[in-house]
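Our preliminary data section would be incomplete without showing what the modeling component actually yields. Below, a chain of 516 amino acids is followed by its predicted structure, encoded as tokens that our downstream tools consume directly.
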Amino acid sequence: MRAEDRGAAAAMKIVSGLILFAISVPAFRWCAGEMAIQLWGVETRAILRQVGRNEPRGRFAAYRAHYEFDTLDADRAYGTAPARRGSQGGWLRVKYLRHDPTWNTPATGWYAGALMVLWGAPAWLLSWWTARSCLGRRRRRDPLNEKEEPPPASLEPTEASPPPQRVPGRTSGTFVFAWVLAALALGLNLAWFGVQEKRVLTTDPEASPDRDPSVGQTRRQTPPRGASLGNQVNGSAVAFESGFVYGAIWRDAAGGPGQEPGLYRFSREGVARIGKSGVTARIYRGVQVLDGWLYYLGMEGIHRIRTDGSRPATLTRTRATSMAVVGDTIYFQHELLRDALYRMDCDGGGERPLVREPTGAWCVGDDGWIYYANRNDDGRIWRVRPEGGGRERFLDRRIGTLLVENTGIWYTDLDQGRALVRAEVSSRDGKTVLAESVERVLPVGDALVVLLTEGTLLNLRRDGTGRAVLAAEVSSMLEYQGVLYLTKGLQTQILYRMTLGGEQMPVLRLGPVGVD
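Predicted structure:
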């Protein structure tokens, strides 16, 4: 064979080997992913949901369960694993990768090993073919350069015609080279997984599984709110800013036909509509103001508009029962999904669920956690981090009202007839403050404003002493700069105002009259 032909053949071997090796690298991805889970995976508990029979059905029935689990830095992840019949509702330990929770597996060594073999065996064949392509087979005789020999007279080997011998070391060399290529392909994949995991821990150190999520929470600076904590918990029917009150006007409200329905700004100087005609006409509850924006719940979703009436926008078509604007995030209850908790950015992007179970009372606490009554757990107190991780049962008490401030938590205990209880977040030990049936609670400085279920409004100290009756037949309450804004009965367009000491102030009518 000429030198040029031998060079072309060698180049073809190299090109073919590189192509096969490039294919083998992604082929080893699943095997390397399983190894990465065992090396860097976060272990957690997963709930077994649907359990079905494997197909095809053999002599011995095998079952496979679909499981789901909550992660530290994502919402929820899913996977499958062998299971027993009727095991749904149970749980198992799983491991997952922080940067991509879809890479998960049961935390058992035998199962992980079986998957590595299952995914690694066919991928290793590509490495074998790569080695064969690079090293080549045993060299054949060239009929042009060698004389043709007569075929042997018999098939039996003789001294004159010994049996053909293999080229020494060729097969073993290919075998060893194939393992080297396989190790290289696995190493490249593992390096990629390692870089991704390290990037998550670098950009979000709180995602580390070794970090106690409760550490440092009480020292976290609370982001600005669209309404005070107490007003958010109590519905935020109107919003307050710089002496203005923002609220909604309904037609035929406040004692007769009024102005066009919509969002308005009220002050002693008069009443001014926010935005052009009809822009905010479908508002029906919840107003909050932050950084020059008014956020409100409408019949078609969550909306916002500048306080000067410009740049109206619908942030989401999802109907919300209630919401809390905190920092650059909106947290809300999804009305059509039984009040599951959702979050999204203040510009309307990044909408996603935090917890999918139905919720009752809830609160974005000052300590950075979101507390809620889990209706799937008979109304007991659970909490979740704002990013969706760390979900846990916080307190084994069935509650009605909930408010978390600084290091303390206020709630009404349904097992004690809605008695008002205060507990410390750190110790979780509760103490009954008011034994009567309480509907709403509103801490204001050193005072505590309490609305009983019968409609009586009380002002008392935080330890339950110094009780004074402020008003009767009250249905809702808000507070701004030491002034209480109350509604009575079903009339929500008239806000009765008074100080914490019980001094009456001019009534605010959400209508054309404005402040009396």
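Residues 205 and 211 are 9 Å apart (CA to CA). The chain has a mean pLDDT of 83. Preliminary results of this kind motivate Aim 1 of the renewal.
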